Amino acid sequence: NLTLKPASRTLTVGATFTMTVMVEAGASQVDGAAAYLNFDPALLQVLSMTPGDSLSTVLYNQFNNITGRIDFAAGKLTPPNPTGSFELVTITFQALDQPGTSSLTFNSVMPRKSDVTLSGISILGSTASGSVEVKAAKLFLALVRAAQYVPPTPTPTATATQTNTATATHTATSTGTLVPTNTPTQTPTATKTNTPTVTPPP
Asked: Of the candidates 131, 89, 106, 113, which has an alpha carbon nearest to the alpha carbon of residue 37?
């Protein structure tokens, strides 16, 4: 596979940056690779191209800032051949003064066909294009500040609150105690009464 690292960039007008074309070969050996890229020349221009070390024989190394093209190809004439992930070429760009978004696409048709090969046979699985977003300086700065803004954490403030609290109060309570009272009771009293006795005559 052919990929771009990083896959996307966001920057301000006038900024200089790099993007690297990566070969992702896995366990397969590679003895040749070509990257033909297209970009928007109204937004970007290429300043330089630096070949990687894994494919030491450079076949094409050119760019055109009028048409927006990058042509690079390299190979390895003798083994051992590289495997895994490695850098094919690193491209240094400069963003121009016009804000906008430029795609970076791998051309896939002849005569500018991006490819990865072994002994002349293509082993390319896929390509992954990238993009560059160019923003006006003031807008970019505002977006960065917005992304970095952390709202302040509110500080708890103690507030006096009147709370009615029931308080136990000892109150003397008069408790009635039954006290026996001597109540005079009327008792019948025998009264002696003189009753005349009649004695019958003889």
From this structure: 106
pTM: 0.68
Per-residue pLDDT tens digits for 102-150: 999 999 999 999 999 999 999 999 999 999 999 998 655 555 566 666 6
